[in-house]
Amino acid sequence: MFYEPLKDAHGLAHDPFKSCVVPRPIGWISTVNAKGVHNLAPYSQFQNLTFDPPYVMFAANQNTNSQRKDTVVNIEETGEFVHNMATYDLREAVNKSAQGVPPEVDEFDLAGVTKAPSRFVKPARVAESPIHFECTYYQTLRLPVHGLQGTVDIIIGRVIGIHIEDEFIAENGKLDILKLRPLARMGYFDYTTVDSIFEMVIPDTNKDLHSGIEGMTSKRDDD
Predict the structure, then answer these.
(1) pLDDT, tens digit (0-9, with 9 covering 90-100), for 10-57
(2) Residue 4 lies in a domain
């Protein structure tokens, strides 16, 4: 089949676009507003952008009232946020935190998860999550879209602190992804998780190329 997305002419019972870009990691983003109210929400259009230094991004459509999401407002207001890894064990909490609720509602309480203090930023971490990125706000890119949402905010943040629970670090120094079981978004209301891994090494002897693909950061002056 072929269709033009601007004409919405796919002819299917459900729009296939999101299911064509899968699986997508979930940015489970925690923020706090100027009044001290905490916010927690999942965003399935989330990704790392580069690694030295590390940056991440997520895209947030406006809500069904055509207003910018509380997450976006809080980040632009305070300049900080935390990404908490969404895992299979936390799937129900992630789903509960996706509800559209007023700004005064604390989604940590709504989802039944525990706040843990961050080291460098004010937003709390989800204590039950095994991995956290403490981030500072870098910039917003706004894109026009159709429908109730009106625009989409693409938030870019710089990762300044990374927390990893020791039990998920294997003896070889790699993360035990099968033990972590990261949650990922498919299309529709479908999700998946990581249940298998295979390795492929590029047949190129360039060590710098291999380091870049693996994500090895450069040695710091104060190392």
Answers:
(1) 999 998 988 999 999 999 999 999 999 999 999 999 999 999 999 999
(2) no
* CATH number of the domain that residue 124 is part of: 2.30.110.10
Domain count within the chain: 1
CA atoms within 13 A on the CB side of 189: 2
CA distances from 64 to 61, 69, 150 (A): 9, 10, 10
Look up residue 102 and give its two tokens.
């007023």
φ, ψ (nearest 5 deg) of residue 167: -65, -15
What torsion, rounded to 10 degrees, do the Cα atoms 192, 195, 196, 202 define?
50
DSSP string, 185-206: E-STT-EEE---------S---
Query: Could you tell me if 116 and 146 are in contact, meaning their C-beta atoms sit under 8 angstroms apart?
Result: no
Range of the domain at 78: 18-214
DSSP 99-161: S---TTS-HHHHHT--EE--SSSSSPEETT-SEEEEEEEEEEEEEE-SSTT-EEEEEEEEEEE
Domain assignment of residue 119, yes or no = yes
What confidence tens digit (pLDDT) does each residue in 98-135 have?
999 999 999 999 999 999 999 999 999 999 999 999 99
pTM above 0.85, yes or no: yes
In a domain, 180, yes or no: yes
User: Helix or strand or coil: residue 164?
Assistant: strand
Q: Is 110 exposed, middle or buried (0-12, 13-18, 19+ CB in 10 A)?
A: middle
Residue 7 maps to a domain: no
Of 103, 27, 10, nearest in space to 65 by CA = 103
